[in-house]
Amino acid sequence: MLVDAAAPKARSAVHLIFAREKVRPEYTESVPDISKPTRTEEGTFIAPVADLVRMKLTSFRLKDQVHIQDMDSVGLITPEIEDSLPEVLGVRLKQVRASE
After folding, report:
1. How far apart are CA 26 and CA 78, in angstroms?
2. Which band of pLDDT confidence, cut at 50, 70 and 90, is reported for residue 99?
3. What Rg, from alpha-carbon coordinates, does the chain have?
4. Which of 50, 25, 22 shows the shortest CA–CA distance to 35?
5. How far apart are CA 65 and CA 53, in angstroms?
6. How far apart are CA 80 and CA 55, in angstroms?
7. Helix, strand, coil in percent for the chain, rounding step 5
8. Chain-centroid distance, C-alpha 98
9. Residue 43: CB partners within 8 Å, gap ≥ 6?
10. What's the average model confidence in pLDDT over 5-17?
11. What angle do CA 26, 36, 23 make, to 5 degrees?
């Protein structure tokens, strides 16, 4: 994690995660490989929505669930993304949708 030396707080830090590694040992899924990032007009690489959905459903904190609701409400979670999820993450997506 990269923190501001003047005000070192985890909540405002830049957190680094590594592809194909679990963020926490108890997580059911590793971070996706993100082999096909998208490049913006400004040249910034961003992860595909499918990979973000997997990461959010794996972490499954309240803020991740809200992010899933936001992505779902604008149609970013397509049937193809939903069908590609492992069973445990599909169950979590259903839980988020049921809580709306």
Report:
1. 27
2. very high
3. 15
4. 50
5. 10
6. 16
7. 45, 5, 50
8. 19
9. none
10. 82
11. 15
pTM of the prediction?
A: 0.78
- Torsion sign over Cα 24, 97, 78, 90: positive
Quote the CA–CA distance of 52 and 65 in Å, as a whole number.
12
State both tokens at 33. Answer: 């490989």
Phi, psi of 14 (to 5 degrees): -90, 120
Which amino acid would we find at residue 77? Answer: I
Structural tokens at position 56? 């959010």
pLDDT, one tens digit per residue, over 52-88 is 999 999 999 999 999 999 999 999 999 999 999 999 9
